[in-house]
Amino acid sequence: MKQPQVLVFDSGVGGFSIAAGIRAELPGVELRYLADNAGFPYGDKPEAVVTGRVVSLVRQALAEQPVDLVVIACNTASTVALPSLREAIATPVVGVVPAIKPAAALSANRRIGLLATPATVRRPYLDGLVREFAADCQLTRIGQPDLVHWIEAWVSDPKALPESALAAALVPFREAGVDTVVLGCTHYPLIRAQLQMCLPEVRHWVDSGSAIARRTRHLLEQAGYAALTAATAGPVSAGFTDALPLGLEGFMTRLGLAPGSLTGGWPLAAPVTGAESA
Ligand code: DGL
User: Fold this and answer.
1) Annotated catalytic sites, by residue?
2) Which atom of ligand 1 is nearest to the CA of 77?
3) Predicted confidence pLDDT, tens digits, the chain (278 residues)
């Protein structure tokens, strides 16, 4: 039986945190990565632009090479684009949304912090999650617009992270006395160690990585795939809609994702322009 193939999509390098979780849990899954870094960051784009780009790019990726499952490894895109994407393609789609439910289950003092993009912290989808799962918690939201840029730059130069600005951005969590922080953007688990150093008093740091790996396993098993953990799939190919980030290969290797073919300026034949990105 052929190995199952999963396409992992994000606006930038954040989705690699999700891809790494899938690779660690399900090494038999063939992974392809697609980053819309020409549209980055999604966190300051109107919802219609984000949805248009996600639908257009994922359709083009599937036309080039079909997969068994698409993972939208971006909270900012998932909280707005999933219904349109599911209507547009027949392939099953898994989305990533802030882990409010597990955070509420862990918090002892009922004070939770949400660190996400400016778009995610104000999405009605998020308010729905809070009403449903954390109605008895006090939620402090930080939608820091620079953080994703810092992390993209950190991939190319690990010394580039502005640590004092990072600590300053997190002050509202300290003031609110949160004991649990939700990493509601897939870029943030990449710098979990640095975040923990800024707020050593926080007891739980929660992201969606392991839940997405579990969901991926469930859907692939339902589709009839076995041996998801026994075999080892090949290297991870990646397409970026703009130039490849400097240091990408070393970064992927550190995450346990052997780099395969890496393409900048994807899709080469039909760039995303005009109405779809306007
Ligand atoms: N990694 C994306 C997320 O999970 C966000 C980055 C962006 O703003 O484009 O929200």
Assistant:
1) 74, 185
2) 10
3) 789 999 999 999 999 999 999 999 999 999 999 999 999 999 999 999 999 999 999 999 999 999 999 999 999 999 999 999 999 999 999 999 999 999 999 999 999 999 999 999 999 999 999 999 999 999 999 999 999 999 999 999 989 999 999 999 999 999 999 999 999 999 999 999 999 999 999 999 999 999 999 999 999 999 999 888 877 888 999 999 999 999 999 999 999 999 999 999 999 765 555 444 43
Eight-class DSSP state of 272: -
Do 38 and 108 belong together in one domain?
no
| Tally of domains in the chain | 2
For residue 205, what are the contacts with CB-CB under 8 A and spacing of at least 6? 180, 181, 183, 192, 195, 196
Q: Residue 253 forms beta bridges with which residues?
A: none
Nearest ligand 1 atom to alpha carbon 96:
4
Q: Is the pTM of this model over 0.90?
A: yes
Q: Of 142, 96, 139, 95, give the one whose Cα is nearest residue 116.
A: 142
Alpha-carbon separation of residue 137 from 51, 60, 114, 221 (angstroms):
31, 42, 12, 36
> From ligand 1's centre to the CA of 66, what distance in Å?
24
Domain that holds residue 254: 5-96+209-277
* Best residue for ligand 1 mutational test, from 75, 82, 114, 126 (most atoms within 8 Å of Cβ): 75
241 Cα–ligand 1 center, Å: 15
CATH of the domain at 181: 3.40.50.1860
